Amino acid sequence: MISVHHTSATDALGDLSGFRYEFYRCLTTRADALFELTDAALCTDGPVTSLAELSLAAEHRRGLAPCTTA
Question: pTM for the whole thing?
Answer without folding.
Answer: 0.58
